[in-house]
Amino acid sequence: MRMRMFTLVALVVILAMFGAACGNDDDSPTAGNGSAASSGDGGGDQAADDPPADDPPAAEPPVDDPVEEDTAADDGIVVRMDGESYDDYIARLYAAASEEGEVIYYQSAGESELEFIREQWEALFPDVEFEPVTARAGTILERALLEVSTGNTQGDVFGAAGVEMLLLENEGALTEYQPAGLENVAPEFVFAGPYVGLNYLSRHVTYNTENVSPDELPTDWFGFCEPEWEGRIGFDAESFEWAAAFIEAWGEEQAREFLECLNDNNPFLHRGTTAGTELVNVGEFDVKLDGMGHVSKRFIDGGANVGVMIPHADPMPAIVDMSAILADPPNPNAARLLQEFWLMPEGQTAMTNEGKATTTSTADSHPYWAFMEGANLLVLGPRESEALETGLEMFTDVFG
Prior knowledge:
- By secondary structure, the protein is an alpha/beta fold.
- It has helices at 2-17, 86-100, 111-124, 137-149, 162-170, 240-250, 252-264, 273-281, 293-301, 332-342, 345-352, 385-399; strands at residues 102-107, 129-134, 157-160, 174-175, 195-208, 233-236, 268-270, 287-292, 306-308, 316-326, 357-358, 377-380.
- β1 (102-107), α3 (111-124) and β2 (129-134) form a beta-alpha-beta unit.
């Protein structure tokens, strides 16, 4: 088990370096929030001599007034009572969180995303300060693990992608909590474990509309192995999680066969989803096999020579940003309130403002619903970490 944990830590560090886990730009889930995970233009683990994340503000002194026995557990944490309405529960939770005064959120999100979150949070819960603590993915993970293991947890909620969440769970660093708002989440994004799926980055075949017509595109992934696509396809040189989806869907043998036949077609390897989509736009190569929905939509809305495969080849990989409460958080009620907030319309709005699809998105609220026609999403959550590890190894072995 300890070797398994070491492997997961190493994977987090490598993915963070390559922007495949949570990050702060177009190419990564904030990996949590990622409000996670997630695959890039930026993001990478801090070097050893980088300064540590800023210390969170000192916790408020404990409240002396006892909470009524029928509305809270013995430790003062508000619990939802049988038959209690959602609104009444949130109101009591907010009152208790207001006594705590703040919620400390560990993550590696970008500043613009945090500002969207802060605006929505303060409009709903002005008496609870939203205090994000930001660092590179590997750095913030190590900090959380150290704090929990020494009994000195300073953060309340941790935002990351699936690999980090599984590692934290296996180390006993997370608190079990199922938000009342979980009923609004699409079933494919409900995971067995103490974490909540927030938004996701779906991977789309993106093509140059001047050089490729939709009718030319193959109907399945192996079609891109045909001779007519030699020298015309490309993908990110660090797209390990994209490869992991094929391992999860088909098994290692068929996934390796697919990657090797792509390699035989001399793919154009690049770094960064935005940069790669621009290369498609200018005709450097014709088809990007691992584009991202929200990035492709931004290019299309801007009048670029970019299109998206519709209907999509099966499977369509998706990396999920997740959130969980750390073990023994200093502000347990505020932590629960933040977990509820993510699944409220306001919390989801904070994420769609970044153009990302959320785990509660419907046809009316999805930022690029038209791209999802015929899509069979393959969601890479915490339990798929083994495929992610194998994907890293296989991708590196095939493409160097």
